[in-house]
Amino acid sequence: MKLLYSRTSPFSRKVRACAAVLGIKQRIALVEVNSTQSPRELTGTNPLGKVPTLITADGFAIFDSPVICEYLNDSSEDMPIIPASGAPRWLCLRLQAIGDGLMDAASVRRQLLVVGGLEADHPLPERQRATVMRTLDVLERERPSLHIDVGVLSIACGLGYLDFRFAGEDWRAEHPRLAEWHAAISEHDCMRSTAHGS
Ligand SMILES: N[C@@H](CCC(=O)N[C@@H](CS)C(=O)NCC(=O)O)C(=O)O
């Protein structure tokens, strides 16, 4: 298998962390691409031009990150990272959606701020910031478990992305329980080995 990824993409980090937990990272060749330049290698396999994109051993392209994680989960004999059925499954997938949404809002906000050109009081960046803050408030109340699954990894990667791109904004002050949880989960090998920049 081949994973088209970027070191700065939190979605790519989530997929890499899942592969590490599932014990299959050695079966995946990492190919770094710059999705902002729409390289042919990426757009030729994924019309959405986004990372992560997984190319299976059969040459079939799989995206987006929740689908890749399902595929990897099915490809491993190890403990699953997605419960098969019932309430545990839906709680895990709901958590993944929250983490993915956190990454979406934070990365859209960053793009808006980097591109610039908007009036200072333009509502779009503020709307994304408010989404991030609401999400952090919910996670502070619901503090996730430390048992690793795809939902937990998505939240951990979302918080890691805030630290990576918005280092000057202290989300921990208002979310101490979540901060404690993040410190604990960040000690896991799968998080250490996929830290942004690694
Ligand atoms: N929903 C997608 C989001 C992936 C995504 O937004 N990737 C960004 C990098 S973090 C990207 O490739 N953007 C390039 C573009 O939008 O053209 C997933 O879960 O994989």
UniProtKB/TrEMBL annotation:
Signal peptide: none annotated. Transmembrane segments: none annotated. This is Glutathione S-transferase. GO terms for molecular function: transferase activity. Residues 1-80 form the GST N-terminal domain. GO terms for cellular component: cytoplasm. It comes from the Bacteria. It comes from Lichenicola cladoniae.
